[in-house]
Each structure stands twice: as structure tokens, then as C-alpha cells.
User: Fold this.
Amino acid sequence: MTRQAIADATVFDERDINRNFSYDNEAYRQVQQNLGRLIDLGKLRLAMELSLELMAAGSCQVEMSNEGLMTDDIETCFEPVLEALRDSGLPAAEIAGWCAEMISSDRTGFICQEKLRALGRRFATSESS
Assistant:
């Protein structure tokens, strides 16, 4: 269900590259809702995995568009995951590694980067303490 919502949200027609093409912002809302539900069900690691998939596909969509209008929708999807990670009991190394992987999966170099770097530093620091 979430993977399909990611596919629906991030699809684009290659004939529309470098244009302000329309996209399914309702599908992005569905992705955000689904990630939140997974977290509520105690499936944070699955939400993290799906976030990586969204970052790869979503940043590609942004890269192919003229103005990247969907950037805010993508970043909004990550909010429940980032919030859950701040308070999770997951190992610091796992969180810092996920942040690094998210950053390297971003084809544009600017989607949610500030928040991911800050979270990664926080857990990299707690790991070395």
C-alpha cells in the first residue's frame, strides 16, 4: 500500500522533463499518513526503509521537473519518521547511518538535508559519547 502510494506520488512522464508537470499531491499525503501509521504500529524500521525509497524516487522526480514543486510534499512525508527517530530507542549508529543513507539517496542535494544532517550529527555524537 505505501509502496504503491510512493509510486503514484513520484511518477512522471519523461516527455515532461524540465517542465512544471502535474503530480499527485494526494498520493504524497497518503504516503505521509501511511508512514505515520507504520510508526504507530511499532514498525519504525519499515518506515525508515520506505523513506529511503521515497527519497530516491522523489528526488528523481524533483530533478526531472522544472521547479521541483513537489519538494515540500516530499519533506512533509519525512516529518513523522524524523520525529519518531528523535525519541526512538534504536541504536544511535543505526539512526546516524540511516541519515547518511538518506542524504546520499537525494539526487538533488537539498531535500530535507538540514534536518537529516542535524539528526545524524546528534546520534553520531551520542554514539561516540
